[in-house]
Input
Amino acid sequence: MSTSLLNLQPEVLENEFVKLVPLQQTDFEGLFEVASDPLVWEQHPNKNRYEREVFQNFFEGAMESKGAFLILDKSTNEIAGSTRFYEYEPENKSIFIGYTFYGRKFWGTGFNSHVKKIMLDYAFDAVDKVQFHVGAENYRSQKAVGKLGATKVEEIDVAYYNEPSRHNFVYELKK
Output
C-alpha cells in the first residue's frame, strides 16, 4: 500500500483512446463549445450550465480546484469534456472524482469508462476509496458509476462553487 501523496493534476493521464491534460484558462472557449448544448446538462443538478455566465462560474471553480482536466479524444485531439479530482483526504485515503461532462457525440461510446479507468488506476495508487457525488436526478451518471462497481452510500445536499445546495447521492468504490 502506497503512502505517497496524490498529485491531483499530473501532467497527463492517458490510454490508447483518451487523454486527460490539466485544465488551463485558455481552454475556456473550446470547452464552452462542448458545454453550450443544453442537453449535456439536462440531468445535472444545475441545468443551466450551458449558459455562458453560469458555465464561467463552473469553469472558475474547476480552475480553483487544481484537480480539473480537459478530456481529449486521442485519435482526433477533439475536446470531449472535462472531469476532476477533488476533496482529497490523504489521512482517510479517499478522494472524489466528478464534475464530469461530455459532448453528446461521446455519450454511449464507452468513452466515460476509459476516462474513469485511467483516473481510478491513478487514484488507487494513493487512496483506498474513491467517491462520486451524483445529482439525485442524474440517472445517466448514476447508471455509469454503477457500471464501475460503485455503490450508493449516502444522500446529501452539496453546494457547488457559488451555487445553491442541491440533493446528491454519494457513491463509493473501494480498492
